[in-house]
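[Meeting: bench + compute handoff]

Bench side (C.D.) handed over the final construct sequence. Compute side (W.E.) agreed to return the predicted structure before the next meeting so the bench team could plan truncations. Sequence as handed over:
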Amino acid sequence: MPTAEKLKQRSLIERYVPVDHTQVKFDGGFWKSWTETVRDVTIPTQHMRLEEEGFLEVLDFDKPAGPLVRPIQPSGLSMQHFFDSDFGKWIEAASYTLRAHPNPDTEARIDSIVEKLEAGQMADGYLNSWFIRREPDKRWTNLRDLHEMYSMGHLLEGAVAYFDATGKRRFLDVMIRAVDHIIDTFGREPGKLRGYDAHEEIELALIKLYRVTKDPRHLKLATYFVDERGQMPSYYDDEARRRGEDPSDYVFQTYAYSQAHMPVREQTQVVGHAVRAMYLFSAMADLSVENDDESLKVACERLFDNLVGRQLYVTGGLGPSASNEGFTREYDLPNETAYAETCAAVALGFFSHRMAQIELDSKFTDKLETVLYNGALSGISRDGEHYFYENVLESHGQNRRWKWHYCPCCPTNIARFITSLGQYFYSTRCDEVAIHLYGESSAELSVGDTLLRLKQTTEYPWNGDVRISVGLDRQKRFAMRVRVPGWCRQAKASVNGESIALNVIKGYAAIEREWLDGDEVRLDFNMPVDRLYAHPAATEDNGRFALRRGPVIFCVEEADIGTEPQRLRLPSRGEIAVRYDDTLLGGATVLEGDAMEADATDWKETLYRTQPPALKPTRFKAIPYHLWANREPGAMAVWLHEK
């Protein structure tokens, strides 16, 4: 663990600093309607669901605990153990909307929750609604299963966001007292517990807190939790024995489930619960910067490469298995049974973005963009109030969106992702500005001591033409580092109409010059329709391909073709037309072309026969994957058979 003196030093791993999300405004285009829908529909309806489902009742600390809203499962865990996390994420998402769009009703709802949390907080700072009301004698006795610090971490992130939005310290002070209690309880010092929560979250929340308070104790605690993870003998074994349990009876059998099977710097393969892993890696990335810890950076890069090279769905979804909400073996990427939890895709966005700030490499930002337009965005409906927990890549019509879930962690996660979207577009370092994402928007940011205004005019992601207007009060020399997406095989650029060569290094090209007010950069990213083929070891996708255009993955839905897309055979060299359909769920690009359909008309009651089915000509239409299941029920497929 770094010394206190080292914690005070300025990091030598100098990251880019993301722009404040409120400095980016989506004036039109793709993200305008999405951000407005989440602000105006998703945020209020989620609070309504918290009330309807009885979640907010757990904060009535002055009343006897009532019947469980979520019963105890055979594992001994109730979803109600971590209801506090849902309040935290909702407050965080709502807070992100308040600075640019003040809303007294939303603020009053947050204040009401904060008032109840403060009233229920124990004198020593402990704060968890389950244990305070139901099992006060069992707090900190089961870090392996019961999510105590996970819940506190999400409350802490909500408190930081609310303080940032309003300047009110009440919630922040409540959570600082909770953190003080954790500092007094956990660590390697004599008399403290050498434990850490099995569901990572508190670590990255503590780093956010540290960046507000500059209190080295907050950074030290986050560092301890990451460094202690996976140390042997396992804390969880000792903890189980103290509860009178046999550690070998652990339902998941291995601590790889929570990435606690070995120290984090020794891990080479992404394993276990997908959301936990991404939260951990996000914290590791942050700590590599704050502590100037090259070993954590190297570990993050190694794990990132393992994930995207062997275990990531083409949509950016991750975690194929429902049994552990996570990973099984490399190249195990089933489509119809894909778990691919929305929370996991969002968390991969967090991790990818953090890595891109440490090293400007589009391999990280490409994955941020993939989850943003596909595997995360598919988790919320176009109306902003229905959701997917699991994001399958194939369906026979059994998958429908729900308005709330037994374990509703995903709705608030996708909400906080979209409401803070602006921070992912730009970052700065010294006299440089990095442009990571593209979309119709305007932004204000500081480059050195100069205010810079950037305006993107584009129909991205539907086409690759992007115009970036520069606004300056005075002439300024700086480098504009523009990302050339990994899917783009041909990119052109010009400044004020004059073509320039792009020297692309790790996916970013630097345009350095004396910039003047009114300068315009034009980027043209060639955006053909690509057929993507999977590694042969991903056996379920053998003989199939997926369609991609720009950052968008497409799927075929029964609603558009009148039959199950699994029966289609697309010619290997068939032409695919691109068309913008303004009648499709607010407007979207669609792909169309010729196909063959397996004909069942002459099979009657025969299940098997010696002749293959005849093929009849038909047409197909593919829509963006994130828009599927927004219309009538029906089958869907991302991976299509090739003839």
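W.E. noted at the follow-up: The longest strand covers residues 588-598. C.D. will use this when planning the next construct.
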